[in-house]
Structure formats: C-alpha cells, structure tokens
Amino acid sequence: MAKYIKRAGIVFFVLVLSLLLAVGTICATGVVENNSNSIVNTNSQNNIFEDSNASTDFSAGNIGLPSNSKTYEVPKADFEFELSGNFSEMSAKWNEIFAFSEKTIQTIKVTLKNDWIAEDHVEYETYFGDGTGFINGAIYYDSGAPLIFDLNGKMLDRRLNGNQIYCGMVIMVGGNGNFIITDTNYNAEKAIAVYNGCKAENNDFANLKSKLREKELGIITGGSTNDKTFGGGVRAIGNLAMYGGIIMDNTANCGAGVFSSSIFNFYAGIIMRNTANVLGGGIYALNSELNLHNGIILYNDSENRGGGIAAEGALFNMVGGMICENHTSIYGAGVQIENGGTFNMYGGKISYNRMNRSIHHEKDEYGGGVYTGSSFFNMYGGEISNNHSNYACGFIMYYGAKGYLKGGKIINNTVTDNSGGVAAYWDSELVMDGGTIANNVVEYHNNENTGGGGVLIGHNSSMTMNGGEIINNKVLSPWGGQVNGAGLLICNVGTNNVTLNKGVISGNYCEGNGGGVSDTSDSAVIKIGSGMQIFDNIAHGVPSDLRLEQGQKITVTENMSNNNGVSHIGIKLADDYGTGTFTTGYGANNSGNNPSKFFFSNDGAYLATLNGGEVSFENTIESNV
Question: For a disulfide at 531, which of 68, 563, 578, 619, Cβ 3.0-4.6 Å?
Fold first, then answer.
C-alpha cells in the first residue's frame, strides 16, 4: 500500500508541475487550451471557415466575376484603319494594312466594321483571302509594328465547323508579329450572364454563340486545325495580347483556343468552349510565357490533358482572372504544367474544373485543378477550389515536380479515391510556408493509397511544413474500405521524408485511421519542429492526431521550447504499439524540457514522460490500488 501512495504522490507532483508550466506558457504566448486539447492563437483565428463540410455538388451554379477585377487599358494607336465591305473588299483592305505595317514600327489599329466570314475554297476548305496578309486561308500578321485588332462587336468566322485541316486557324501571328486583340463592345458581365442563362436552360450551349451575338459581343470562331499545326482560334508564334473579345468554338489537336510559343498577355476577354483532341482545350503554351491578368478561361475541353491550359516548358504567371468549368480525361482539367515549366499563382481562381465523364478513358484521372509534372508550382495567393477528379484534386506534383505554398487557399475540392487537396508523388517535393488547405474531401472507393484528405506524400517524395494550415479536411469510406490520413497521409513504398516545423493540422476527420497525420508507408521519416500544432483531429469517432504504427517513431529536430513553446501535438499509438518510446532526438535537443508540455495522448489518462532521454506515455492512474 505504501508504494502505491508514494506512486500517487509522484504522479500528483508531475501533474502539478505540468500544470504550472502550461500556465506559464499561456501567459507568455497568448495560447488558450480547453478540455478537448484544442488550441488557438489569440492573434489569429485558425478555423476560418464557418462550414467545415465540403460540398460534393460538382455544379458551380452561376459563374461569378471576381469582385476585385482590374481594368487594363488598351495601348493607343498612331494609325487607324477600318475593315468593312464585302468579302473581296475586306480581303483587299487587309492586304493593304499588312503592306503598310511593314513600313512602320508605330502602333496600328484596325476596327472591324462588319462580320468577316470565310468563304469556300477548293484547297483550304474555307479562306479569308489571298495575298501576303493570308496564309493557307487564315488571316496572317508578321510585322513588328504592334497591331490592335478591334472586333468591335463583330465576328471573325473561319467556318470550318470542326473539320480539322492544315492551317485551319482563324488568325496566324508570325514570328515577327505583335498582335493585340480587343473588342470595344466587350462586357464580361453580359457574356457571363448569357453563359449562366444557357446553363440554367439545361446546359443549352448549342445556342450560346447566337445569344452572345445578340449582345453584340466580338467573337473569333470556326477555326479547326489538324495534328500538323497547333492553334484553332489563334496560332501565335510571335507576341500576342488580348484585352477583350471571345475566342470560342474552335478545335485543334493542341491549343484549340490559342496556341502560343512566344509571349501571350491575357488581360481581359474570354476563351471558352474550345475542344482539343490531345491537350490545351483553351490555351497551349509551348516554351513560352503566358501571363493571365484578368482573362477568363471557361468551359474548354481536351481529350487528354490540360482542359483549360496546357503549358509545356513555359512560364505561366497568374495574376488574376478565372479558370473555371474546364474538362479533360487524364490530368490537369484546369491547368497542366510539364517539361520544366513554372507556374506562379499570385491571384485569381481555378475552380469547378473536373474530369470529363462524357469522355471514356481507361487511364487514371489526376489533378482536377492543377497538374505539375517535372515542373515548378509557386502559390502566393488566389484560390484552387471546388474541382473534382479521381485522384489528387487541388494540385498534384508528379515525376520530380516541386511545389511551394506561400499563401492562397486550396479548398473544397473532392476526389473519389485519394488526395483531395495536394499530392506530391514520384520523387516530388512540397514546401508549405503559408496558405490554407481546407475542406477537401476524399470519398474513397478503390486505390492503393487510401486517403489523404488534405495532403498525400508518396513514392520517395517529401514535404516540409514551415507554416500555414491543413484544417477541416475529410476522408470518407462509403464502401467500408480502410482509409487513412484526413489531414496528411504518407504512403506507398520508398523513403518519404516529412518535416513538420511549424503550422496547424486540425479539425480533420477520417472514417479510418489517422485523423490528422497517418503513415502507411514502410520507411518514412517524420521530423517534428517546435512550432507544430496537431490537435482536434478525429478518426472513426475518437481523437487521432498523429498516428504511429508499431515500430514508427517521430524525430524531434530542435528544442521544443523554441517558437515560444507553442508546439502542441496529440499522439495516437496503434493498439499493438507497446509501451516503449515514440521519439528519437528528443533528449539531445531538449535538456530540461518536460515533454508533457508539447505532447499529449489521444488515449486519455496518459502523460508524456522521459524514458531514457526519449518520450513515452505513462498511465497516470494506478489500476491495482
């Protein structure tokens, strides 16, 4: 009996000491803890979403324009021309303008005064004219003098209607060209209202173009190229800019709306309802620079990849604008970046893109929002939201890709198998310094990688978290299969390295194991720093923050009292884990630090204590008193 009284006294002393240390931490850092081990920083609110239930409705309803849309001014012209008259008169006038452009370096403006409709041609199927201002029936411009082409509410129609031919584009910008598209009548609000109206009428997009014409909006349409040439609406080997107008209903193998191999500045306008047989339904940028300012890429389709944008070996800067409701069948419904390209996202939205269920394809479906293969993705702001695919919906890094999250939101994306928010796979690397990954949902059905609501790391990949939040993600199992890792899942073979230095993983829910973090791989390395908070995560109805299977340990890399000692990590040990230590490196970096200040057990009455310099849990209740 005496030894049990002594034992109880020791436990009471430890509890009192731990309480005093915790109170001291609260006073010093402004951290509040409640009975459920929740923790919030009084200087910032962690749970920024009122509704933690992500929607699985894949219909966007009405597309809305960003409230902070910026207006860009079209350059001023030094010379002005008008294109009007019948077919022959317009063709002759364009040849005259082209000849004039070769004699100046000043800016020229051409205003379209009536529709220019291509006529039948024996060799080119249809054509806009013959002469130096045309190439294989397409309108051609190859002068260094900047030329502003004002659609003026009128239409350019190549009239190929899906008949794919060589050089079947509407406009061809040569390597020396500097072509600027605008539309004096362009009104984004009117155009989107018409689009939403067609959606409301049982997706009656067959009449979309005619209804846009009723609003007197300028349109480039009817282009169709085969596998010998890229670019259905516009093929730009030289520089291209767009300040207004609509490029729609064009087809191509690659780059149905626009193909660019130089610089394309997309300031305003809409590229929509174009169809690519292979990649780049809206835009295909090849070894070039694409700058999306306030343009809209909407409802384009590709059979293979890059429903909205396909960029290979290109620099893509997204400052604003929208990439919405595009479709593909293999990967990158919104954006596909490959072959050493770089995507810098500063603002705008990539939303409601999805894998096209109308296209049957036996291959996997990756990246409803963004797919990066052997490329770089840097996210500073903006939003990737409400996209849908089978795997890795928000954005995925594949084959040595690197992703850096500095800010922005990856939210409300849904998948049917794994990785709702972000995935790093096949030797890829994710660095998260800020931003929010939240409210993404996995509805697991059948795949080797079973979950990863917020983030999935697999196949010799790595993640370093230095800030940001992974919160309120879900992994569901409607068919009753085993699922794991609602916040973060480390999976598959190979050595995956995960370093969690600072940030919040909280409020995630899994119908299997590991509400917060789960490691189902065979040899992952998990390192923990002093600024990490993993708490209030749930798995199959009980607390489960960082789950460790038998034999798994976490590596403590620094003094846990750094960062004002905010580190707060719940540990869930598997039933067969045993009573041994679950850390390495704690003693070497934390002399004199009570581990109960930083670690707590998800299994109730257990206290984190030192055991040979490392941390284990000790039962605080003597069961045989």
Answer: 563
Segment (H or E) for 469: strand 469-471
For residue 462, CA distances in Å to 125, 164, 411, 485, 490 come to 53, 44, 22, 16, 9
Give the residue from 235, 375, 232 showing the smallest Cα distance to 312: 375
Please give the helix or strand (H or E) that residue 297 lies within, else none. strand 296-298
pLDDT digits (tens, 9 = 90+) for 196-216: 999 999 888 999 999 999 999
Going by C-alpha positions, the residue among 196, 300, 189, 194 that lies closest to residue 254 is 300
CB atoms within 10 A of CB 18: 18
* Token pair 């010799």 in the structure block, residue: 460
With residue 182 as reference, give the H or E element that holds it: strand 178-182
Chain centre to alpha carbon of residue 193: 26
β partners of residue 365: none
Rg (CA), the chain: 29
Cα separation of 316 and 323, whole Å? 13
pLDDT of res. 65? 85
Q: Centre a 10 Å sphere on the Cβ of residue 86 and count the other Cβ atoms it contains.
A: 8
Rounded Cα gap, residues 141 and 155, in angstroms:
18
Residues 493, 524: Cα–Cα separation, whole Å: 9
Instruction: Classify residue 452 by burial, with Cβ atoms within 10 Å: 0-12, 13-18, 19+.
Output: buried
Nearest to 120 by CA among 83, 174, 161: 161
Find where tokens 């059979």 sit.
303
Q: For residue 478, with 0-12 CB atoms within 10 Å meaning exposed, 13-18 middle and 19 or more buried, which class applies?
A: exposed
Q: List, for residues 215-234, the tens digit of each pLDDT value.
A: 999 999 999 999 889 999 99
What are the CA-CA distances from residue 211 to residues 194, 196, 218, 257 (Å)?
Answer: 7, 12, 12, 20
